[in-house]
Amino acid sequence: MSQIDESKYDSGAYENKWFTTSDGIRLNYRLYGNGESKKPAIIALPGLTRCVRDIDPMACEMGKDFKVYALNLRGRDLSGYDPDYKNYNTRVYIRDIYEFWQHTGEGPVVLLGSSLGALLAMLMVEDHPDMLAGTVLNDLGATIEFAGMSRIFGYAGRLADEEKLSAVVATVKEHVGNQFEDLPEEKWERMALSMYGLKNGKWHHRYDDNLGLALAENKETPRDLWAAHKRAAQLELPILSIRGELSDVTSAETIRTMKEMAPKMQAVDIPGRGHCPIMDESSCLQALTGFMGQFENPA
Asked: Is the whole-model pTM more than 0.90?
């Protein structure tokens, strides 16, 4: 096995920190950024099988002007694995996020979620609107397309260990390759390293193996994301949608309908990208910076 530095693409532009939930799970998070900014802080949440390494480039850039917290959900990367895998569910994730926000001591924040993280951000509007200055939804809307969910659930929790990083890159391309056009090879490698780490001499995905069981046995009653979005519209909560034009999870029609319900909602489509945009490209960063510009500094 060739020797690869797992932190090859890591910015290092953060403090690595920890927070313990009310049920004793130790969550890892990164703190980026400008402590001098008077704008709302950003709390960034990764996707279902992803971790904060995935959003490091975006958080590094946004941290130049804003304070950014990037939180690993329980069972992901350096965060503690739950001994009861049934706790890998939206109800527990929402409780963790709210407790984390209280831990930070921040006022209302912008909750930036990718995929599952965006779903949690939408539900937070109903459950804990007091913590929200706004939401950023990275490639998720009030209707989740079956094709995309089938693709994701087809590999989540089922990927085998690999001997070589090149095999990991090939696996990543197999499952998400149709979601990214003309992605440079180094970005494929960076994505692979954000999703896999060395464990017992092999490349292993960076989440609890039992997450697959939690998904297979999930008995949660799906919540109505349209009702959650309607509530956001009623509150006139600032919302930014970032959608990949190639997305098989979020349709353009869903975002159009959401904008009709919430006319102040902002939306940008990222060409050549699907689920999810990596958010380190100029079109994403410009949209995020413009969105944050609407918030006034506190007196």
From this structure: yes
